[in-house]
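Request: Have a read of the protein record below and say how the chain folds.
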Amino acid sequence: MLLLTRPLPKLDASVAAFTQAGVSVTGVATSDIEYNDIAIAKLHQYLLQHSHATLIATSVFAVPALAQAWPDAPSYRPILAVGDATATKIKSHLPQVTVFTPAQHTSEGILAMHQLNEANCEDIVIIKGEGGRDTLQNTLRLQGKQVYPFCVYKRVALAQPFYTNNWQIDDVSGIIATSENMAMQLIASHSDHILTLPWVTVSERIASTLRKRGIENVAVCEQATDQALIAWIKDNWEY
């Protein structure tokens, strides 16, 4: 059995996907998502006045805020999504828009996209969560772009981790960590035994943090979707 970290709103759907694929998991959420209505209202006002801006959605949780702030987003302005799950969610909320995703589903992947280097790409709106990485905005500003980040949600730590079923540490053969924050919260709430288990995460940055924490067996799956993680596990782990 594997432990799978996801924020609370995504937990049940992810566990269902793994179960349907024949991979036994216990879902664990260490955080929930809380939206910032004031930031969403500011995003709405900005987009009304700057409909030419290029938008970047950094996670699936940014999408409901974008749809609330700009339900009539014009089809001629591209929206860049950090990954396939975010792109799919954008299309479900805003079917009229054009969505692009990078080859590498990270901030660095977005920075490599040609859409950010086009002549008409001068104003860039980044829709993100509080406490997220600043790589995008810092790099784009160094390139001379006008960048406007809007932190429309934040992760709120749960008082106790939430699990989808009862489990014992001896039953766990591996851990799937989809964010650095949740991985650290999981480590803090359990014995050092979980440091000896194999882990897979979704970026080299997170893997490096886990190695510094003392976890030696850390692998990277380049995409964070359930389907990508399931495929990686079936190719690389016994489960």
The longest strand covers residues 146-163. The chain has two domains: 2-31+168-236, 36-155. The chain has a mean pLDDT of 91.
